[in-house]
């Protein structure tokens, strides 16, 4: 199979779909890989690093999209990239379609086959291709919050962990999944006073055990959510409904009653955000103020630590990339229900129910479409 790796073009996005080590694995399996010029430069990989292991360097994304059978990316294709996709061409990347009707429409019109990293599943019910970026984003959320608390950033001037004789900041984490757990780890490590809210009692018990009673593990009701949001100096939005738009759990009314200079970090912004006042921002302009509350809503947070993120992502995505290339996407998807769960768009049809429901499209069962097209 001919596999193409275009350079990422989203604002301050330096990650790359395949590192040289991953390219080498694909070539060892008998495949060809073309990589856009300077695609890996943002994380320290030169074009020579790719050619040394057998890849071919291509000058333009247009040529890659025009010739590759499978496109491997990191972030969702931008509008001009969507328009370069061909009918039947395989796209393997993050998509986050539910809050993005424009991208969804363009992908449908392209006739491509789009597999979303974020909805591929595992036997234990987890999302293995989303998990590494969730780990990174969860940890970064606390770094970002600590910076935003500084007075020069319009924060309330608190040091997250305080100092002896001065109380630390209160951090409320909404959601105890991968993002939330990693946010808690960082916040506890920095000495903050941490509360995590979740609707799973089993998960709250696990977190209480992991952190040995050093955090507050609170069952998430409207009353509890309001109480701990209003008492927080930092609120981390870490909720996820796989493939669907994030619920707006923190209302504008709650935000208007928070202490001035408090900070909201919405890690769920890729799925539309879980704060009513959230809107996507970029690394170039990461924050804005609503009701004297600092909002940090960068839609590609892990891109800020692009080298770590790229290696972590490739560790997770390479196995499925090899399967898709070795078997071809039809057989690979039919053989593996977990990979099939990642199929969001198939030749003009929506094949992920949450996306279809949120955006008002007809839902088509992936297996039926694949078998009919075999």
Topology:
Elements: E1 2-5, H1 20-28, E2 32-36, H2 47-51, E3 56-58, H3 61-67, E4 70-72, H4 79-82, E5 90-93, H5 101-110, E6 113-116, H6 131-148, E7 170-174, H7 178-189, E8 193-198, H8 201-210, E9 216-219, H9 222-230, E10 234-237, H10 252-256, E11 263-266, E12 287-290, E13 293-296, H11 306-327, H12 329-335, H13 337-340, E14 343-346, E15 349-350, H14 353-359, H15 366-372
Parallel strand pairs: 1-2, 1-4, 2-3, 4-5, 5-6, 7-8, 7-10, 8-9, 10-11, 11-13
Antiparallel strand pairs: 6-14, 12-13, 14-15
What can you tell me about this protein's structure?
The protein has 15 helices and 15 strands. The two termini are 18 Å apart. α6 (131-148) crosses α7 (178-189) and α11 packs across α12. By secondary structure, it is α/β, with parallel strands linked by helices. The strands form two sheets. An eight-stranded mixed β-sheet has the order 3-2-1-4-5-6-14-15, sandwiched between helices. A seven-stranded mixed β-sheet has the order 9-8-7-10-11-13-12, sandwiched between helices. The protein has two domains: 2-119 and 305-372, NAD(P)-binding Rossmann-like Domain (Rossmann fold), CATH 3.40.50; 131-299, Rossmann fold, CATH 3.40.50.720. The mean pLDDT is 97.
